[in-house]
Amino acid sequence: MPSSPRSAAASAQSSSAFRTLARAGFVANGLVHVLLGALVVTVAFGGDEQTDQSGAFEAISAAPFGAVLLWACAVALWALGAWRAVEAFVARGTSGADRAKRAVKEGAQAVSFLAVGGIAASVALGARSQGDQSAQNASSNVLSLPGGPFLLGAVGIVVAAVGVGFVVIGARRSFRKKIATPGGTFGTALIALGTVGYIAKGIALATVGILVVVAAVTVDPSASGGLDAAVSALLQTPAGPWLGAAVGIGFIAYGLFTVLRAKYARLEA
């Protein structure tokens, strides 16, 4: 008797090749965050760099065999996105509500990794990033819709809430449920990297969400922006360069944690 789509998806997760590629996705994602953190630190102390994923991928493209590295990152990120998509489809849980919650969460992560992989591929093909202009164009398109300001405001609130969620995950160290934490000093260091990294990424995402909400309230798409604009906003605060540098170091910590997560992540099958 033919297997059901759900059982076929669960069977795919037992593939060693699929699991290896998914773990490689963590390495690629970690590398992007390490480079992104380095760019943020550079900008915090007066540099002129593009502090978003495209900027990180363009830095990779400038390295020897950059195009090869970019395609490797794209494939690995797509594999991790596919893994998350399968997780969303299988959606294990103890109750219907728990399964639905997990499906939404895993599905959102799948879209995120697939999109970042797409950015890596586009840079490999020679595309140049428009930076915050693309985010502003997207905001302008949403504002032109009926009820656009309310819709854009809702998007901003969701992004800010995700950022707060990252901060909470870092503060509570609840990410430990997703990894098989090794013992000893190394395990302690791994948890410290995750704590700092999640909080820093949460601050950046929350700032992006706030900018989008401001754009919705003022009906001014130029007020919105992506991560690059969020870093600029943080640098304009009284803490200025020190806050920016702290966030950049936090991104580096998150990246290192994510690279190590490739080995210790709990990949259910």
Automatic annotation (TrEMBL):
The chain crosses the membrane at residues 21-45, 65-86, 107-127, 147-169, 190-219, 239-260. Residues 24-90, 108-172, 196-264 form the DUF1206 domain. Pfam families: DUF1206. Keywords: Membrane, Transmembrane, Transmembrane helix. The keyword Hydrolase does not apply. This is DUF1206 domain-containing protein.
